[in-house]
Amino acid sequence: QVRLVESGGGLVQAGGSLRLSCAASGTTWLFNAMAWYRQAPGNQRELVARISSDSSTKYADSVKGRFTISRDSAWHTVDLQMNSLKPEDTAVYSCYAEISGRRVYDYWGQGTQVTVSS
Questions:
Q1: Which residues face 12 on adjacent strands?
Q2: Which residue has the higher pLDDT, 92 or 102?
Q3: CB–CB of 71/78 below 8 Å?
Q4: Which of the residues 35, 38, 43, 115 has the least number of beta carbons within 10 Å of its own beta carbon?
């Protein structure tokens, strides 16, 4: 069984920084990717950043150059460093993990609120 627990959300002024962390437990050695998603009220959930087993990364255009995703080699932790935050970054941020085999298994954390004030 996989468990993902996020931490690090909160309230920050525009231009500030926050670092989100996701602690993973369970069969983490089977992960082929982890990611951060976010969902603002009235919006669909969107991919923020993704990191794969070869450490390649993918970012939403809206966060490129401001956010950085990183992980430890054992998939126990994935972090999202968020700099130059904007009010439009306000959302619930959720950690995601993926195991691919015959089918794709998705795992989600409970989410953490990030609020950026103007």
A1: 116
A2: 92
A3: yes
A4: 43
CA distances from 1 to 4, 28, 51, 97 (A): 10, 9, 21, 12
Average pLDDT over every residue of 68-80: 95
Q: How far apart are CA 101 and CA 13, in angstroms?
A: 42
CA–CA distance, 77 with 11 (Å, rounded to integer) = 22
Percent of the chain with pLDDT over 90: 94
Residue with tokens 């992960």: 31
pLDDT-derived band at 1, boundaries 50, 70, 90: confident
Q: What are phi and psi of 100, to 5 degrees?
A: -110, 130
pLDDT at 31: 94
Taking phi over 0 as left and psi of -120 to 50 as alpha, with beta for the rest, 10 belongs to: left
